[in-house]
């Protein structure tokens, strides 16, 4: 109710401001990038709350009507014309050099701020402004694509979004069958790991006693889940996704549940890319589950390995013989896993390669190749198990040869594991995973001796 009242109040202020603008014929700006830049300049120059809110809404509406070229020109104008006030900055620098003090340092800090940051703050005051700015940054990210000319603008937008979407503003809500339909529809649409085929499939994931779904929301975007996690309550750690999603599976009585399995985590807003709150989501969900079901003692993921097959195909330095490479070509057959002999031969190759992929392989910059691994290991999880034939869906076969992994969140070890990964790049792994890597070494020795 409080959010609705505040939204209505902003809408009223904005509409009154629009009336003022119409009376002053101030909204006849050209409906193109140049006209929009001029309107942004006027927004920064104004002081009235009502007219400013209305003008901010006008800017966002006009932006929404621009085509891709117009939006690109608008972004370029923000980079070109809305940087720091150079004269003010020069004076602040000179004053600091002459007689440095805390007050002068503060003045230098504010003088160096680009004007576009204040512009973005004022746009955020418009009704619905926060969501529109998130969508605007999604456009910006799509246009950057390795180009650096818009990087300064992206730094300013992401800096402000990071402040507005920090953990203190986020609200955790459980998603169940009583959740409003418009939000449930977005859960179906945004699911990025294991596609939700229809409403019946969604209900099987959120309604049974042994299933949970949680999402983070922001007060300014009350109907938009920002990130959500799907959870299965099981007796033991699972090694495959199909039994968890099966249509005819038997529901587990809650008193028998000992393991919480995070089997899908989906970010929903591209415009919030690089603003991480997934770790907070997992930790808070763990706390919720422990309060609700105290007998839970194991918290683990069942995760995809999205970059594994691409790595196998592109890395020319893999520890493989010519014979091994011929065997790997059998992965091109979409039904390879139905042949027991082929499956056995591929398993002897794929499992050690997967261990090498996680424990040894790195990008040219020294980072782990797999984004899912970076996320969970950075959050303090342990690489617990590599699961052969864990995902036989077309996507799973295409991206990872069916391999899935479990990351274990052992609460007493999270901080230690995080520090090992963050400071030294160490992948904390179970002995079972390390043995697979040793198996690779034994196989290479056999190759040399033969």
Automatic annotation (TrEMBL):
Residues 82-165 form the Malonyl-CoA decarboxylase N-terminal domain. PANTHER family: MALONYL-COA DECARBOXYLASE, MITOCHONDRIAL (PTHR28641:SF1), PTHR28641. Pfam families: MCD, MCD_N. Residues 168-409 form the Malonyl-CoA decarboxylase C-terminal domain. This is Malonyl-CoA decarboxylase. Gene3D superfamilies: Malonyl-CoA decarboxylase, catalytic domain (3.40.630.150), Malonyl-CoA decarboxylase, oligemerization domain (1.20.140.90).
């Amino acid at each position: 109710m409080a959010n609705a009242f505040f939204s209505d109040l902003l809408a009223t202020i904005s509409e009154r401001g629009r009336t003022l603008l119409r009376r002053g014929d101030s909204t006849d700006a050209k409906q193109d990038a140049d006209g929009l830049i001029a309107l942004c300049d006027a927004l920064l120059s104004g002081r009235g709350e009502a007219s400013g809110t209305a003008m901010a809404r006008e800017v966002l509406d006009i932006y929404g009507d621009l085509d891709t070229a117009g939006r690109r020109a608008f972004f370029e104008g923000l980079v070109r014309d809305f940087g720091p006030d150079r004269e003010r900055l020069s004076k602040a620098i000179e004053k600091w050099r002459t007689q440095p003090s805390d007050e002068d340092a503060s003045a230098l800090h504010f003088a160096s701020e680009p004007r576009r940051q204040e512009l973005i703050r004022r746009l955020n005051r418009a009704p619905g402004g926060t969501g529109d700015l998130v969508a605007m940054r999604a456009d910006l990210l799509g246009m950057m694509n390795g180009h650096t000319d818009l990087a300064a603008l992206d730094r300013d937008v992401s800096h402000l979004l990071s402040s507005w979407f920090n953990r203190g503003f986020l609200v955790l809500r459980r998603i169940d069958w009583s959740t409003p339909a418009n939000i449930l529809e977005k859960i179906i649409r945004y699911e990025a790991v294991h596609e939700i085929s229809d409403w019946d499939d969604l209900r099987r994931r959120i309604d049974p006693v042994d299933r949970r779904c949680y999402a983070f929301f922001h007060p300014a975007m009350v109907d938009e889940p920002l990130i959500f996690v799907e959870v299965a309550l099981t007796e033991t750690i699972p090694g495959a996704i199909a039994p968890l999603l099966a249509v005819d599976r038997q529901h587990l009585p809650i008193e028998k549940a000992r393991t919480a399995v995070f089997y899908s985590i989906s970010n929903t807003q591209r415009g919030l890319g690089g603003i991480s709150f997934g770790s907070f989501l997992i930790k808070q969900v763990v706390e919720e589950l422990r309060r609700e079901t105290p007998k839970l003692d194991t918290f683990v993921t069942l995760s995809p390995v999205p970059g594994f097959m691409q790595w196998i195909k592109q890395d020319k330095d893999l520890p493989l013989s010519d014979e091994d490479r011929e065997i790997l070509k059998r992965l091109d057959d979409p039904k390879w896993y139905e042949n027991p002999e082929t499956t056995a031969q591929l398993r002897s190759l794929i499992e050690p390669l997967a261990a090498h992929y996680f424990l040894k392989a790195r990008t040219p910059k020294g980072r782990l190749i797999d984004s899912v691994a970076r996320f969970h290991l950075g959050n303090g999880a342990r690489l617990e198990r590599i699961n052969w034939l864990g995902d036989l869906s077309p996507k799973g076969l295409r991206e990872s040869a069916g391999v899935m992994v479990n990351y274990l969140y052992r609460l007493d070890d999270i901080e230690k594991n995080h520090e090992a990964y963050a400071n030294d790049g160490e992948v904390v792994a179970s002995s079972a995973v390390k043995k697979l890597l040793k198996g690779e070494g034994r196989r290479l020795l056999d190759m040399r001796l033969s």
